[in-house]
Design goal:
6 helices; Glucose Oxidase, domain 1; alpha/beta; two-stranded antiparallel ribbon; about 325 residues; globular
Length: about 325
């Protein structure tokens, strides 16, 4: 490994965000190592970074056979619109059809019949691995609605720089041992401070990713799973959630993006509180991640890429991490 690549590995990804003095608003900043078209001799390049990092997928696969965000909310529907040939019957409720005869392309042949395969879907914005934009609970400023403030941005208004940062894997799986039916065990400030004592303080640009282990419940029906049902079935213990004071502590540390492999950042006994606490301050949440245990405690770089939908409250997307090695 070159010296430049090693330096880049040790510093992970350049810090892209800083916190403005007033209001805690995230804004672009000059990175510690800005990638330029002609880097100085010995300066790490983007090529160095990509050659010395692998990509780890942290995304749940969307499938009608798997649980959505909640049984009381719109489910994920994925339907065939067009197949490569006419289909009279099949598992899909919509009969697939061929556009072969309607194509304006060159004349069809046996090897190139000029047809295509495509589906359409119904997607609740908070299905599978997704992010919460502030408008999930915070109406836009000037709307006249309760709880509205200047942080009430729609999903398409969120800059991509705000959806990435230095991954910090906080292992809280042990909290599930004390879980009670109808309640979520809570990640308290002391749990984060204990992690900081062992791994260094959190700060601006860090992305705490809470490894709860809840993604193990993301299994196909008809297997019973508490993945989503724990919210309404009070005989089940809830997923591990983040306590409101913990969100305040992270905000004061300069953290603006937080993730979890649980169904929601909020507890089954009070799913709203932690959302108001964070989104109301302009923080962003990425929920329903998976495979967090495959990342190092520090040293990888987290990225979330949502669909860009006008006036959305957030959306599903692809989460991944650049991991050294």
């Amino acid at each position: 490994m070159s010296r430049a690549a090693k330096d880049l590995r040790d510093t992970a990804w350049p810090d892209r965000l800083t916190t403005a003095a007033a209001g805690g608003v995230s804004a672009p900043a000059t990175p510690q190592h800005a990638f330029r078209a002609e880097p100085a001799i010995g300066e790490p390049t983007m090529e160095d970074f990509l050659q010395n990092h692998r990509i780890v997928d942290l995304t749940l696969t969307l499938d009608e056979r798997y649980p959505g965000v909640g049984s009381w909310l719109p489910g994920f529907h994925h339907r065939v619109w067009n197949w490569f040939e006419q289909v009279d019957e099949g598992p899909q409720p919509l009969i697939a059809r061929s556009y072969r005869r309607e194509s304006t392309a060159a004349e069809a042949t046996e090897d190139r019949p000029n047809v295509f395969y495509s589906c359409f879907m119904v997607l609740f914005e908070h299905t599978g691995t997704h992010f919460d934009a502030p408008t999930h609970v915070i109406p836009p400023a000037g709307s006249g609605l309760p709880a509205a403030n200047e942080h009430g941005l729609y999903g398409d208004q969120i800059a991509l720089e705000r959806l990435q940062g230095k991954a910090c894997i906080v292992d809280v799986r042990s909290l599930r041992e004390a879980a009670k039916p109808g309640e979520s065990p809570l990640i308290q400030v002391e749990h984060v401070q204990r992690w900081e004592a062992a791994n260094g303080p959190l700060g601006p640009g860090d992305v705490p990713l809470f490894w709860t282990g809840w993604d193990e419940h993301y299994v196909a029906y008809p297997e019973p799973t508490p993945y989503q049902d724990a919210f309404k079935d009070k005989t089940m213990a809830g997923w591990t959630a983040v306590a409101e004071p913990t969100i305040g502590y992270l905000f004061d540390r300069g953290v603006r993006l937080v993730g979890t492999d649980a169904t929601s950042m909020g507890a089954v006994q009070d799913v709203y509180g932690v959302h108001y606490a964070g989104l109301g301050r302009g923080m962003l949440y990425v929920e329903s991640l998976t495979a967090l245990g495959t990342l190092p405690v520090r040293g990888s770089h987290f990225v979330f890429c949502p669909l860009k939908i006008a006036r959305s409250s957030g959306c599903s997307g692809r989460a991944f991490a650049y991991v050294p090695g």
